[in-house]
Amino acid sequence: MYSAIAANKRNTIIIMALFIGLVGAVGWTISYFYGNHSIAYWVIGVAAIYALIQYFLAAKLATLVTGAKEIEKRDNPRLYRIVENLTITTGMPMPKVYVIDDPAPNAFATGRDPKHAIVAATTGILEVMNDRELEAVMAHEISHVRNYDIRVSMIAFGLVSAIGILSDIALRMMFFGDHRDNNNSSNPIVLVIGIVLIILAPIIATLIQLAISRQREYLADASGVMTTRDSEGLAQALEKLKEYGRPMKQQSSTTAHLFLNDPLKPGFFSKLFSTHPPLDERIVRLRNNAEKF
Q1: Which end of the chain is more exposed for a tag (fewer CB within 10 A), N or C?
Q2: Average confidence (pLDDT) over 68-90
Q3: Do β-strands 69-70 and 96-100 pair in parallel, antiparallel, or remain unpaired?
C-alpha cells in the first residue's frame, strides 16, 4: 500500500515533467515561428497557472459537470454509514459524500488529497447493489483517495486540458495570425516538425492520461479488497455493472476517467481511448488473486 502511494507521488512528478516538456515544445514552436523566444516562457507560465487553478477547482468542477449533490447522513444513511465505516477502518478523514440522480450504476472519487476528498454514487448503483457490493464499490473509491490517485488524475486532467487549449491557440496563430514581421528565414522542415508536434501534443497527453487511469483502476481494486477482505464482493459488484451498466445521462469525456465504470456511450473511439480496463479482466484478476488478498 505504502509503495503504491509512493509510486503515485513519483508518477505525479513524472507526469508534470512530461506535460511541461510538451507545453515547452508547443511554446518553442510558436516562438520559432514568430522569431520571439519570450513567447515560450509566457506559454509555460500561462499553462502552469491554468494547471494550478485546475488543481484547486477541478473537484468542484467535476461535481458540477456530473450533477452530483452533496448529502448529509440523514439524506441517505445507508451510503453515508458505509463510507463512514470505511474511513474509520482505514483511519482516513471522512470525505464529502455526493449522490448523482442517474439510473446508470456508477461511482467516483475526486479531490486533491484525503483532507479535501469527495466520493459520489449514482442513484442507479444504490438501487441495484446490496450492502456487501456497495461497500466493495465505496472501498474501491476510498482507495483512490488513499492512494492519491485523485491527485494524479486532477493534475493529468488539468494539464491535458491546458495542452489542448494551447495547441488550438497555436495552430490558429500560425495559420491565421499576422506574422509579417517575423523571421522569414525559418527552416521549413523545422516548422513542419513543430506543426506536427502541436497537432500530436494533445493526443500524446491524452494517451498518458488514459494509461494512468487504466492502471490506477487495478490498483484501487486491489487496495479496496485489502480494506474489506472481500474480493468476491467487488467481483460481484463488477458483474452487476456488466449486467445493469449503461451510459450516464449527463456525459462528459473530461470526467469519464474518474468513474468506477466507463460512463460514456460505447463506440469505436471510446474503445480506442478507453479510460477503463475491461470489466471481465478486472473480475478475473480479483478471483485469481483472491487468496493473495
Answers
A1: N
A2: 95
A3: antiparallel
H or E stretch at 241: helix 231-244
What's the average model confidence in pLDDT over 12-37? 74
For residue 84, indicate whether it is catalytic. Answer: no
The C-alpha cell at 148 is: 492519491
Query: Which entry of 84, 133, 135, 141 is annotated as an active-site residue?
Result: 141
pTM for this prediction? 0.76
Residue 278, sorted as left (phi over 0), alpha (psi -120 to 50) or beta, turns out to be: beta
Q: Which three cell numbers stand for residue 245?
A: 451498466
Alpha carbon 287 to its chain's center: 26
Query: 83-135, pLDDT tens digit by residue?
Result: 999 999 999 999 999 999 999 999 999 888 899 999 999 999 999 999 999 99
Compute the half-sphere exposure of residue 254: CA atoms within 13 Å on the CB side of its CA: 19
Label residue 135 left, alpha or beta by phi (over 0 means left) and psi (-120 to 50 means alpha). alpha
